[in-house]
Design goal:
The protein is of the alpha+beta class. It has helices spanning about 25-40, 60-70, 80-85, 90-105, 125-150, 180-195, 200-205, 215-220, 240-245, 290-300, 345-350, 360-380, 385-430, 440-485, 495-500, 535, 540-545, 555-565; strands at about 5-10, 40-50, 75-80, 105-110, 115, 165-170, 170-175, 255, 260, 270, 280, 320, 330-335, 340-345, 360, 500-505, 510, 515-520, 520-525, 530. The longest helix has about 50 residues, at about 385-430. The radius of gyration is 36 Å and the shape is extended. Mean pLDDT is about 80; it is low at about 535-555 and about 560-568.
């Protein structure tokens, strides 16, 4: 029998870690080399795929071996066992029983006692291949379950730390901040919040000679990348900027399962439904504040078109139509090079059947919002306690009595639930002691259980109402330090608007009895929503606010002017 020129093929995947030393590449080489020596088989080449799954055949050295077979360099393939060759029984059968036979290649599996030169009827091989395929599916399922369990515990599972972080030297599943990269992340978020679009931002990053994430990684791991991509170290792209802006890791969250493999043997990754994601909050120090994160996410959801300068107009995504709820289009005069106003895009595209124009001038909008921010900022700065009380009253006064009633009812419900627990325990004891019959017990317990179930549902509803009411206080506490910063602003910009404003609702113009027109514009602030200033402040209130705090003459004068304006 012609011995031929042999290919020794070895493989070990990450899933095979529990095989120990007997399954190592080194051990496979030693066993197979010894076999060839004992059987006088010439070794042409040793092929090794270390760290590659057996669930498909897209492995570099396996492909190299097949190429060598194609050109006639190899006519014997020897493996330690069939699972080292692969774990996908259908394709293995095609390769071994058809392709190898066609090419005249002898196949040997030591452990399984398979040698195609000695027997053409390799039933054991077919059975073993099926078993290996089953094992692969089982191992894959176990691996996925283990990864999900680790993710649910908040462990960071990626091979490398996210840009902006490094792995904790004491815990490879935890992230710690990498200051130089974290500064870049903060810059990207802040620029976006200030109205800088994706394209202009990439230009800014390039001009500032800021390393892109891949180049930065390579700087700290110079031997890792084999490609030359990193050699364009300042080459930023809109997609990489967008991926940074969307990553929840920057607010301290660990997110697992955003993508998944298409199938067991097709390892192409596809997006996973969001409901399948695992999100564990506050697992590491955040780089981006929650407020800045919320601002950026709101902006990303809005339609943001950049002008020729790469800038996004400051009201982008904020101005809404009161009737159809869509964003108002901004109008731009190209000749004059400035924005002129807003109008409903639904009306513009579909006409009166769908909506009306809801048009408002740019200058008018700018002035309205500027004055409203200054009014609130001055009121908050001049008398924070009073302003806070009035905000709370404006947001909760109508529900205050209802909330107090709910709290009283909740105490009664809790008391009755506790009473029913005691009653049902006593009833069970009476049944055990045969003080009541089984029939009597069933009748009474069903009634008590039904009552308790209804009470628990009512408790959940009451708790929800109270929680929503109390969250107003927390929201106002978050709002106050932000609004106070803008007492003295003289003009608006993207940063101010995105930090303060949730939305601006524009109504259609209405005719007044005197022939003039008026237009309602509701400004909804972040945390507190829409508050009608004239409902909050009258002249006596504002003056009282000024008397309760120590302020200088200039602020008193401002308060008086503010009072006049609000009273009017």
């Amino acid at each position: 029998m012609e011995k031929g020129i042999a290919a020794i093929y070895c493989r070990l995947s990450q899933d095979d870690g529990d095989l120990g030393e007997s399954g190592s590449i080194q051990t496979q080489k030693a066993i197979l080399t010894r076999y060839c020596k004992d059987n006088h088989i010439a070794i042409g080449e040793i092929y090794c795929d270390d760290g590659y799954t057996g669930q498909n055949f897209n492995r570099p050295d396996f492909r190299r071996m097949m190429d060598d077979i194609d050109v006639g360099k190899i006519n014997v393939v020897i493996v330690n066992d069939l699972s080292r060759f692969g774990r996908e029984y259908a394709e293995m059968g095609l390769i071994i029983e058809h392709y190898f036979e066609e090419k005249g290649v002898r196949f040997i599996s030591l452990y399984d006692r398979v040698d195609t030169a000695k027997s053409k009827d390799n039933l054991i091989m077919a059975i073993t291949n099926v078993m290996n395929s089953f094992y692969a599916r089982q191992a894959s399922s176990k691996t996925k379950a283990a990864h999900r369990a680790r993710a649910q515990d908040g462990m960071y599972l990626a091979g490398h730390a996210l840009f902006g972080y490094m792995k904790d030297p004491n815990d490879r599943h935890k992230l710690i901040i990498d200051p130089p990269a974290a500064d870049v992340v903060q810059t990207i978020f802040q620029l976006f919040a200030d109205g800088v679009g994706y394209v202009r931002m990439t230009k800014i990053l390039r001009e500032r000679k800021i390393l892109n994430p891949m180049a930065y990684f390579n700087q700290n791991n110079p031997d890792y990348f084999k490609s030359d991509y990193w050699r364009k170290p300042f080459d930023w792209h809109a997609t990489s900027v967008r991926s940074i802006l969307m990553n929840q890791a920057y607010i301290g969250n660990v997110v697992f399962g955003k993508t998944k493999v298409k199938g067991l043997f097709d390892k192409k990754r596809i997006p996973a439904p969001q409901e399948e994601w695992i999100i564990v909050e506050n697992m590491h120090e955040r780089i981006i504040s929650r407020e800045l994160w919320d601002t950026v996410q709101q902006l990303m959801k809005s339609r943001r078109r950049e002008n020729s300068k790469g800038e996004v107009q400051m009201f982008a995504g904020l101005v809404k139509c009161s009737k159809c709820g869509s964003s108002l289009n901004v109008n731009f005069d190209k000749k004059k090079g400035k924005y002129t106003g807003f109008s409903c895009w639904v009306y513009k595209n579909y006409g009166k059947d769908r909506c009306t124009s809801h048009a408002i001038g740019w200058k008018t909008m700018n002035q309205l919002v500027l004055e409203d921010i200054r009014r609130n900022a001055k009121a908050a700065k001049l008398a924070t306690p009073k302003y806070k009380e009035m905000l709370i009253a404006a947001k909760t006064e109508k529900k205050r009595q209802e909330t107090e009633k709910c709290k009283r009812e909740l105490k009664t419900v809790d008391k009755r639930i506790a009473e029913l627990d005691k009653i049902m325990n006593k009833l069970y004891e009476d049944l055990a002691l045969e003080k009541v019959s089984e029939e009597r017990y069933q009748t009474m317990s069903k009634g008590y259980e039904a009552e308790q179930s209804g009470l628990k549902e009512r408790k959940n509803k009451l708790t929800e109402i109270i929680t929503k009411a109390e969250s107003v206080y927390e929201s106002i506490e978050k709002f106050l330090p932000i609004i106070k910063k803008y007492t003295d602003i003289t003009e608006l910009n993207t940063h101010i608007l995105n930090e303060l404003i949730q939305k601006i609702v524009v109504y259609e113009k209405t005719d007044n009895p005197d022939g003039s027109k008026s237009q309602r514009v509701d400004i909804h602030y972040k945390f507190i929503g829409y508050v009608e200033m004239k409902e909050m402040f009258g002249l006596p209130m504002v003056m009282a606010m000024a008397k309760d705090v120590e302020i200088d003459d200039a602020l008193v004068a401002e308060a008086k002017e503010l009072a006049k304006g609000l009273a009017g």
